[in-house]
Amino acid sequence: MNVYDSARMADVLAPLGYALTEDPAEADMVLLNTCHIREKASEKVFSELGRLRQLREQREARGAGRMILGVAGCVAQAEGEEILARAPFVDLVLGPQAYHRLPEMVARLSRAGRAQLDTEFPAEPKFDHLPAPGPRGPAAFLAIQEGCDRFCTFCVVPYTRGAEYSRPVADILDEARALATQGTVEITLLGQNVNAYHGEGPDGATWSLGRLIRALAEIDGLDRLRYTTSHPRDVDDDLIAAHAEVPALMPFLHLPLQAGADRILKAMNRGHDVDAYRRVVDRLRAARPDLALSSDFIVGFPGETDREVQRTLDVIDEIGFVQAYSFKYSARPGTPAAAMPGQVPEPVKAERLARVQDLLNTQQIAFNRRCEGLEMAVLFDRPGKHPGQLVGRSPFMQPVHVTAPERLMGTVQRVRIDQGQPNSLAGRLVETSDGTLPERASA
Ligand code: SAH
Ligand code: SF4
């Protein structure tokens, strides 16, 4: 979501004459887009700000002009005043609901010469005020939903991103068409709880995610669709049917489970037990037998016992994930779990995380190995490290390294997988019977 938001901020600033640079030392403006989900991500902001301040001083000493320094995103939302107090050299502080007002903030900053803070939740959604997206390349994100009403006891999202909001269908289709026209082939639909999507359709009815996916799949040039992050409780029949019926919907799903013990899931307020998760997975796999699953896990939630960690390991073993993120529980200010008894000591969390990650890594490596010898449709979306090489993404989100001519960038090609490595695949283009390369293969 932050990658998407950053691109949208660039869209908003483009009419003011700003363009992206890879080199912060050259920048007229640096916006740090921040994450508040865990303490570690949050703390990085202040060390990063210290570094940027030095860059700014060096730049100004060179006579290269002033650098505007801003903090955006969820740390800004949650700790706006604290940022201005701890880092008074910062010029702009804005929450995730305020970035359409960036041009105004920049104007006020230059008029008043004083730092500008905007962490309001506006009455009108920011999406109504954003320009059409600029070119994003072969694979792009599109936010369709924001915020969350689930209030898992460990999570800051409902506080930083606010209440659940679904964008109207027509807006989403417009943004998707604009992306497709500019060469985007694959779209990942985004939301903090994306499958809770319930947007207003052009027919006045409320559309589910499944229905939206069917409409998006009709757009010319959009060959591939994904969505993230979904909640097991909000997987409905229509969405499962879409996995069976919409070929553009890729056979890879990120479906966070968090923990394998029912008592912990309850304390987390996830709203489902392990068996309910298992049933959802069974139905999804029945609909789409090649579906590969990815997940999120938290270890060291308050009160978690060693036996409960073993439950998590058992369930991972049983269900099987091709990829996953796992985290040490991080107490977040203002969340119910932060005040729960039985906070787990750091070294214990570290040891549990290592066990969970070991198993998840083993599963990921085994899956990548099982891909050897298969033919896959790969979307080439970036140049490789070596000349003559392109990197693409498989249907299962694995990076695939292939020797391929540059003209195939942005196309989907059939690739034979020769090697499954821990974090990626290597393969070669499949030639057609007459020895030529197909220009475009379907997903
Ligand atoms: N909406 C998604 C998750 C969004 S946050 C869902 O409900 O699944 C992304 C991931 O960060 C979560 O799945 C969780 O595993 C992790 N996370 C969130 N808060 C955390 C915390 N306080 N400590 C550790 N991990 C956390
Ligand atoms: Fe956070 Fe996801 Fe739970 Fe919402 S559903 S509170 S975003 S973990």
- What is the averaged pLDDT score? 95
- Give the strand order of the largest sheet, numbering strands 1, 2, ... along the chain: 15-16-17-19-18
What is the total number of structural domains? 3
Shape: globular
CATH topology of the largest domain: pyruvate-formate lyase- activating enzyme
Low-confidence blocks of residues: none
Percent strand equals 15-25%
**Span between termini:** 25 Å
Rg calculated over all Cα atoms: 23 Å
Description:
This protein has 443 residues and is α/β, with parallel strands linked by helices. The chain has helices spanning 2-13, 39-61, 74-86, 102-112, 157-160, 169-181, 209-217, 237-245, 262-267, 274-287, 306-319, 346-370; strands spanning 29-34, 68-73, 92-94, 116-118, 139-143, 145-146, 165-166, 186-190, 198-200, 206-208, 224-228, 252-254, 292-299, 323-328, 375-383, 389-393, 399-403, 412-420, 425-429. The protein has a 5-stranded mixed β-barrel with strand order 15-16-17-19-18. A hairpin with a 5-residue loop joins strand 9 and strand 10 (206-208). It is globular. The relative contact order is 0.08. The structure holds S-adenosyl-L-homocysteine (SAH) and iron/sulfur cluster. Iron/sulfur cluster (SF4) binds next to helix 5. Residues 148, 150-152, 155, 157-158, 192-193, 231 line the site of iron/sulfur cluster (SF4).
